[in-house]
Design brief:
Elements: H1 3-19, H2 22-29, H3 33-41, H4 57-63, H5 79-86, H6 102-105, H7 112-121, H8 123-130, H9 140-147, H10 151-159, H11 172-187, H12 193-199, H13 209-215, H14 219-226, H15 243-249, H16 253-261, H17 276-283, H18 286-303, H19 309-320
Helix pairs in contact: 2-3, 2-4, 3-5, 4-5, 7-10, 11-12, 13-14, 13-15, 15-16, 15-17, 17-18, 18-19
Length: 323
């Protein structure tokens, strides 16, 4: 290795250490608690944030559990255990921009073995985090659903006492963020999924789990949620959209079938005055238009006491030509 190459390599290592730190990289790569302990013993700062996002080592260790239970030894130690034992204050250290805490936010790519471990080792902390809404409008379960939505993982949360109909008060950043995306959704003629991602959530005490499962076509998650007591299949978000609106908008035929079978009302209108049929038509899903139109006809006839179904059909055909 010549002098120039060596200098370049040292410069790159120095840049990585300044930006991320050795401890950040160590907790990210694999489960190696002995190495984590050695780095901490030699002065590594577990609270050092990475640039831009401000996540510390505990946040990285809980969020990116890319290793699995086969990498955990007989002592049943995970990277997060060493970090929390070294500095218990990491439990409450929030990511500065969105108010995310390690246990609650550490479910984006988590898996059942990891969740089972933290639920058993930190039961009180997990109970607190289960219903808390953080700065991005997400609860313990929301973080997981947006990325992977593993039914086994969700069952563990339900067994731990997660109430899918109730959440705690949101952090301040989320109230601002939510209002911004709701405004963007209302101003755009065809809001993107990125906008809907935040706009479907609302800063009250009802988490939008059904909406997320419907928007991202998470069939297993949807079935689990619909089986939970107290879940309202026609619950509306801040845009007055039901899960059926979002399923229709995104063309998820199987999700539409499940929601209709569970009692979803295909005639409800959202903030724009659109029914699920109107969203399916607007997005070009012809098969869904026919399916939802038939469901709307049936629902309308049932409400009118079984009056002429053909009249309802004529009304729907007229509605199709509306701009």
């Amino acid at each position: 290795m010549n002098a120039t190459t060596k200098t370049d390599l040292l410069d790159k290592i120095s840049w990585v250490e300044k930006k991320f730190g050795v401890l950040h990289l160590a907790v990210l790569s694999r489960n190696q608690p002995k190495l984590i302990q050695m780095l901490l013993d030699h002065g590594a700062n577990a609270r050092q944030p990475i640039p831009l996002f401000g996540s510390n080592s505990a946040m990285i260790a809980t969020t990116f559990t890319m290793y699995d239970a086969s990498e955990v030894g007989d002592d049943d130690l995970w990277n997060v255990d060493v970090l929390f034992k070294h500095d218990p204050g990491l439990f409450d250290l929030k990511q500065p921009i969105f108010g995310i805490q390690p246990l609650g936010g550490g479910n984006c790519f988590g898996h059942a073995a990891y969740l089972e471990h933290v639920l058993k080792r930190y039961p009180e902390r997990c109970r607190y985090e289960l219903g808390r809404i953080d700065g991005v409008g997400a609860t313990f379960l929301t973080h997981h659903m947006v990325y992977t939505s593993d039914p086994e993982y969700m069952r563990l949360l339900f067994d731990a006492g997660l109430d899918v109909t109730l959440a705690g008060p949101p952090e301040r950043p989320y109230r601002i963020l939510s209002s911004l995306f709701v405004l963007l959704a209302k101003l755009q003629s065809r809001p993107s999924n990125a906008v809907f991602h935040f706009a479907v959530m609302r800063n009250d005490k009802t988490p939008p789990y059904l909406h997320i499962a419907s928007m991202y076509a998470q069939l297993g998650a949807l079935d689990l949620l619909l089986a939970m007591p107290g879940v309202d299949v026609n619950w509306r978000n801040r845009l007055r959209m039901t899960p059926l609106h979002l399923a229709a908008r995104n063309g998820h035929s199987l999700i539409v079938d499940r929601l209709l079978a569970a009692g979803a009302d295909p005639t409800l209108k959202d903030w724009w005055g659109r029914t699920p049929v109107a969203w399916a038509r607007r997005m070009g899903y012809a098969t869904l238009v026919d399916k939802l139109t038939a469901a709307a006809d049936t629902a309308t006839a049932a409400r009118s006491g079984g009056n002429d179904l053909a009249h309802s059909g004529r009304w729907q055909r007229w509605a199709r030509v509306k701009p």
